[in-house]
Amino acid sequence: MFFDRPESGELAVLVHLNLSHGQDAEDPREFEELVLSAGGDPVAFLTSGSRIIPTAKFLISTGKLQELADLVAEHKAELVIFNHTLTPSQERNLEKVLQCRVLDRTGLILDIFAQRARTFEGKLQVELAQLRHTATRLIRGWTHLERQKGGIGLRGPGETQLETDRRLLRNRISMIEQRLEKVRSQREQGRRSRQRAAIPTVSLVGYTNAGKSTLFNRITGSDVYAVDKLFATLDPTMRRIELSDIGAVVMADTVGFISHLPHKLVEAFRATLEEASNSTLLLHVIDSAAEERMRNTEQVELVLEEIGAADLPQLRVYNKIDLLADAEPQIDRDDTGKPIAVWLSAQTGAGCELLAEAISELLGKEVVNGCLVLTPTQGRLRAMLYAQQAVVEENYREDGASLLRIRLPKSDLLRILSAASLAFEDLTWDDQALPVPDDLSGEL
């Protein structure tokens, strides 16, 4: 019932009211983009010029309510969507007066998520969020099947239809939570496997429609769904790539964030968002051409804090510089020379090589770079280093020992040594035998 959606758009009247000031105010342009992304057809936009005081019964005043009713009748609208959170009673009261469906911002986002879900896990997460949202909005819809009548042949199980609905919802929610717990366990097992193999995970996070999937496709050579719509990506995608000096890296594309992301969604998508919260490095993708760039960045930081990922290493990626005048690809660094931001265009590919360079710098802090001395009896270790593509140059001494100039992450070397039953301290180094070029210099 949650995933059948009409192909055609729905005539909708949009309502955006000035209920708050400052950073907490919703963006009317983003609201309209959300409606279009959901397949809606906006026919009218009701706004308030000055700040209004919300009412308990309808949220809006009786004068605004009459104005809204006139717009619905004039355009024969099938749906009224509020860019605000409505209580269940406010939704019911508005529907009774307007004689059409009423949806709030949370319901709109849930509908978009339902349309975008493709994988089994994604559909489960969306259904869980929708069930939690619906649980507070149950009404008596089929009283002709009342269960508390008396008399012979009319006695029921002793619970009302509303109680039965709530029980069925609780059972379904419990079943979905158990399935998602299994998914969470499987993801945790995959993360432990990557940690044992010393493979870092880099997650793309950011505001919705910042260009994360386009950048993901550019870096990994994938073809995941990428389109200029809000929440085009819902199901997480992971790919393995190879970076110079680092080796294998797992890149993860995640769902986009949005201002005032409903808490129900954060809870339902916790299994997915845990990929970001357990990453080695976060790439915070930012739409550099967006007017509300600063506000969107702050909203992403709030969500990262909510999922416990605020303290992870982070590299900001300012995307879409092709839409800016006189913008050039570049790496911004702090006082110590550490990369903190990269300016690029995922659409044209300009600056993507700088992003790979910055990632390598941030992940490759412990790169082993030097001349290793191997005796003829250590042929297995030599073969393993070649298999890891860690050997830059090889030479031989008169006593038959091999001189291998190697360059690889220390974590990879430790993994190889563990497989060869050796310790890092057991290795013999001779940096004088093969001078290390300036462009490959590094510390052991």
From TrEMBL:
Its main location: cytoplasm. SUPFAM superfamilies: EF-G C-terminal domain-like, P-loop containing nucleoside triphosphate hydrolases. Keywords: Cytoplasm, GTP-binding, Magnesium, Metal-binding, Nucleotide-binding. It holds the Pfam family GTP-bdg_M. It is found in: Cytoplasm. Residues 200-367 form the Hflx-type G domain. InterPro entries: EFG_III/V (IPR035647), G_HFLX_dom (IPR030394), GTP-bd (IPR006073), GTP-bd_M (IPR032305), GTPase_HflX (IPR016496), GTPase_HflX_N (IPR025121), GTPase_HflX_N_sf (IPR042108), P-loop_NTPase (IPR027417). GTPase that associates with the 50S ribosomal subunit and may have a role during protein synthesis or ribosome biogenesis. Monomer. Associates with the 50S ribosomal subunit. Belongs to the TRAFAC class OBG-HflX-like GTPase superfamily. HflX GTPase family. This is GTPase HflX. It comes from Cellvibrio fibrivorans.
